[in-house]
Design goal:
The complex is a heterodimer. Chain A is an all-alpha fold. Chain A has a single domain, classed as MetI-like (MetI-like fold, Orthogonal Bundle), CATH 1.10.3720.10. Chain A is about 80% helix and about 0% strand. In chain A, α8 (about 125-155) packs antiparallel against α11 (about 190-215) and α10 runs antiparallel to α11 (about 190-215). By secondary structure, chain B is of the alpha+beta class. Chain B has three domains: about 5-230, Rossmann fold (3-Layer(aba) Sandwich), CATH 3.40.50.300; about 235-285, SH3 type barrels (Roll), CATH 2.30.30; about 285-365, Beta Barrel (OB fold (Dihydrolipoamide Acetyltransferase, E2P)), CATH 2.40.50. In chain B, about 25% of the residues lie in helices and about 35% in strands. Chain B is elongated, with a radius of gyration of 25 Å. The chains are: A mainly alpha, B alpha+beta. The interface of A and B includes residues 120, 122, 125, 126 and 216 of A.
């Protein structure tokens, strides 16, 4: 029994979720709180990974990060290759999951009364301090829900990962891809174990977060 | 140099604010109907909204001057803002709420200062509670404490009683008056309730539809509203219309509903409308006197502005009765079914048996007829 897909999926989904938080939360805040040209367009664009077929996303992602794509060529020059590595799987998982975090966090930020932020400003706080001491603590529940959804989506990504990272056993074969391969090869016992691992991981995660959310703020 | 010097122009969707006022008073109230621009004014003073044009100076310090390109950031204006509904931080304890503006101090000192403030506003022992656990009155005090803890140059209060029910409003009005006097902080208070504006403000600035219609010391406003529209915003009853017979610097004669009324003119204002011109005036319902029938006939030389009429309607306000009087004059009554609203104490209503006896003579002292300049 090969447990590599489990380790890889854990590594990919945790890294991707960290990347999603780093990029998604500021973007969600900007969409909820700032007025800038192209805001509506961006607001529509960030949900596109949810509605486009994963293979279409994967195709365009490959065009961008492939060895002939603009980003791929730039990184090749630095000696880093993306396509068909575990890093490509991270980017695939990131792209598929970021809309879930952005939408949840945006709703969270929208739910914070602007009067509270204004109160903090009149009390001498900088914008940075207002965000950390008022906005984020009050939006935290929605953001946590978004992070959990994003993590689960990153953990389960199939289509985008297959397109940009392939399904190279021992290198880029994540858990969902491995399950598919086992079923194709009629290795039902292995498929069964990996599926069970996935179910247990997600259920444990949801229980843990459920506890966290019951805490007051 | 005035304590407050405010000039603001701000265009918002469907609304335009264009106001200018100054105040020396320690408490200035902005009074007017909802949507008149009072809160927009506070937001512009605090810097939460940026005016299109104008100037904001507090105690000589210029916080905003569109022409000079000055726009001090809200966090540097050193003003305390008590928002409508208080805007307390729900995720922080009472102590942390009050200490929120003291970030520059070390933690120990910050908490010590916040504790002192809580004691001063009567909330010692509430440090660890959260805003959600407090009553409306306690929340208001926390909001006040949070703003006052930073020792602001000016306190801004937006409808501080709107979130409370009636009996509490009265008690907290006196509470607030005491706290303001105790801390000695200058304040601008927004309200749409004239009693509140009068009770708390030394100067009242009357707002209507984005404009200032009058700015005066409170007693001047009470007796000399600048116009009929100010009187209506203040909720003054018996605002009436007549015709000028003769105006001199100290008297005005008015023809109204077949009566010749004599009113005191204000020499300071010296309002001298020409004869036969239309004139508005008001008579406070509690200043109309009923002539008792058991003390002989009324004497026109003693009882000024004598008239006679019938009670056509009445309302019981518990300690007082409001009577609607229709005068004997021909023609359409001045206010729908009646000419005058008269307020009498409940005791008088009972003694004179007004519920049975409906025909009365009335007299109004000339000093109780207040002319409203056009």
């Amino acid at each position: 029994m090969d447990f590599f897909p489990i380790a890889l999926s854990a590594r990919v989904s945790v890294t991707a979720t960290a990347l999603t938080m780093l990029t998604g939360i500021p973007l969600a805040w900007a969409l909820a709180r700032r007025q800038f040209p192209g805001r509506r367009l961006l607001d529509a664009l960030v949900v596109s990974p949810l509605v486009l077929p994963p293979t279409v996303l994967g195709y365009y992602l490959l065009v961008v990060i492939g060895s002939r794509g603009p980003v791929g060529r730039l990184l090749d020059g630095l000696g880093v290759s993306l396509a068909f590595t575990w890093r490509a799987a991270v980017i695939a998982a990131w792209l598929g999951s970021i809309p879930l975090l952005i939408k949840a966090a945006q709703a969270g930020f929208d739910g914070v009364d602007v009067r509270l932020e204004q109160a903090a400003r009149t009390l001498g706080r900088t914008e940075w301090s207002v965000f950390w001491s008022v906005t984020l603590p009050l939006a935290w529940r929605s953001i946590t829900a978004g992070i959990v959804l994003a993590f689960c989506r990153a953990f389960g990504d199939f289509g985008i990962t297959l397109m940009v990272a392939g399904s190279i056993p021992g290198r880029t074969q994540t858990l969902p891809l491995a399950i598919y391969d086992h079923v194709q090869a009629n290795e039902m016992a292995q498929a069964n174990v990996l599926s069970l691992v996935a179910v247990v991981m997600v259920v444990l995660l949801l229980i843990g977060v459920g506890r966290l959310a019951r805490l007051r703020y | 140099m005035a304590l407050l010097d405010i000039r603001l122009r701000k265009r918002l969707p469907g609304f335009e604010l264009d106001v200018a006022w100054t105040s020396e008073a320690s408490v200035t109230t902005l009074f007017g109907p909802s949507g008149a621009g009072k809160t927009v004014t506070l937001d512009c003073i605090a810097g939460l909204l940026t005016a299109d044009a104008g100037r904001v100076a507090v105690g000589g310090r210029v916080l905003f001057d569109a022409a000079a390109g000055i726009d001090v950031r809200p966090r540097s204006r050193q003003l305390g803002y008590v928002f409508q509904g208080y805007a307390l931080f729900p995720h922080l304890s009472v102590l942390d709420n009050v200490a929120f503006g003291l970030r520059a101090l070390p933690r120990r000192e910050r908490h010590a200062r916040a504790r002192t403030v809580l004691e001063r506003i009567g909330l010692a022992g509430f440090e660890r509670r959260h805003p959600g656990d407090l009553s409306g009155g306690q929340r208001q005090r926390v909001a006040l404490g949070r703003a006052l803890a930073t020792e602001p140059a000016l306190l801004l209060l937006d409808e501080p009683f709107s979130a409370l029910d009636a009996p509490l409003r009265h008690a907290l009005r006196e509470d607030l008056a005491r706290v303001l006097a105790d801390w000695g902080t200058a304040a601008v208070l927004v309200t749409h309730d004239f009693t509140e504006a009068y009770r708390l403000g030394d100067r009242i600035v009357v707002y209507d539809a984005g404009r200032v219609v009058q700015s005066a010391p409170r007693s001047e406003l009470l007796w000399q509203p600048a116009s009929e529209s100010v009187a209506r915003i203040m909720g003054i009853r018996n605002v009436l219309h007549g015709t000028v017979v003769k105006a001199t610097p100290d008297r005005i004669q008015i023809r109204w509903r077949g009566q010749l009324l004599e009113a005191v003119n204000s020499p300071s204002r010296s309002y001298l409308p020409p004869a036969d011109s239309a004139i508005a005036f008001f008579i406070r319902p509690e200043y109309v006197r009923l002539i008792r029938k058991d003390r002989g006939a009324a004497d026109p030389s003693h009882h000024m502005n004598l008239m006679e009429g019938v009670v056509v309607g009445e309302e019981d306000f518990g300690t007082t009765w409001s009577l609607r009087i229709r005068l004997d004059a021909r023609g359409v009554p001045a206010q729908g079914d009646h000419d005058l609203e008269v307020e009498v104490p409940h005791l008088v209503y009972e003694i004179l048996e007004i519920d049975r006896d409906r025909r009365w003579q009335f007299s109004i002292h000339r000093g109780s007829i207040h002319v409203l300049p056009a």
